[in-house]
Design goal:
This protein is an all-alpha fold. The protein has one helix spanning 2-104. The N and C termini lie far apart (154 Å).
């Protein structure tokens, strides 16, 4: 019977060692999963920083070109306004004179489509 209890005792010890190994493996697995998660987060952060840097570069290029376009438009607008003001100043007197002569110097005429009816 002593050998029988000794066999049971060995089985219990073997079972305990197997359970300890299993617990240790679970801990290592949990630790490795946590480490993999941290590595993935670091990689994601690095990728995000790279993409944000590219975005800022593209924005600066786009904004730079937009400001150049807006400056060009402002220059063109100023130039066109100056042209129109010059044209106005050159023609204002003659146009006013023509308008006044049309209004004040009335020449009564019969319209070309008028038909006399009796």
């Amino acid at each position: 019977m002593a050998s029988h209890s000794q066999g049971i005792h060995q089985l219990l010890q073997a079972e305990k060692r197997a359970k300890d190994k299993l617990d240790e493996a679970k801990k290592r697995k949990g630790k490795r999963l946590k480490q993999a998660k941290e590595e993935a987060m670091a990689e994601i952060d690095q990728y995000r920083m790279e993409r944000e840097k590219e975005l800022r570069l593209r924005e600066s290029k786009t904004m730079g070109s937009q400001s150049n376009i807006s400056d060009e438009l402002e220059d063109q607008t100023r130039h066109k306004i100056q042209e129109l003001n010059g044209s106005y100043n050159r023609c204002v007197e003659s146009v006013t004179a023509q308008l006044l002569s049309m209004v004040c110097d009335m020449k009564p005429e019969i319209h070309v489509n008028y038909r006399a009816t009796n």
